[in-house]
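Appendix B, Record 12. Input sequence as logged:
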Amino acid sequence: METYEVSPKGHRERMRERFNKALTDGMHDYEVLELLLTYAIPRRDVKPIAKNLLQSFGGLPEVLEAPLDKLAEAPGMGRSSATLIRLVKELSGLYLGRRLERRDMLSSPEKVVDFARTKLAGLPHEAFMVLFLNTQNELIHSEVINEGTIDQVAVYPRRVVEKALSHHASGIILVHNHPSGYTDPSDEDKNLTRSIREAARLLDIRLLDHLVVGKAGYCSFLERGLM
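Logged structural output:
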């Protein structure tokens, strides 16, 4: 069992004052993570824990996207500390989602991508999310309608359309992730998009885009001319 020295009270106070003055400007990733962990791990030097997390998972985004159980098993961590890290990740998604509400989605494509990547890009399995829009292309609701395996997820056009009708949506944006990181759409992705577009068109529901997101970026069917 690994042990860590007690963190001096003055060090923690200096870190918080530094953050309060300039937020994360000039802070290393391990320092930001260290500061976060001070609120879950009392009376212990958490700098080694923060550095170990970054080294073990590969970086700050990977730490935030890591499964709860994996985080909890890391040296010096535990369920409470892992939950705090996951809470930060989920809060980021909620924040971005709220910022999209009542905003023209087509005029803020970068915000749509940020939201999609925050929600799905770090998952170890494929998931399929739909953004439901009103006649002004404003976000009404977002929902992950199915989750699958590492390389596929079953999606039924009828269910997508039924969900759109239940939310009184006039437009939809499809989003799914590729855990491999490669965002080029597969033939299955293209066929599914065509099927959903045709099913939606019959009920005057517009399919505005299909985003494929991964850790390294994204692919927009609209931007690629695949719609």
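The beta strands are 127-133, 139-147, 171-177, 206-214, 217-220.
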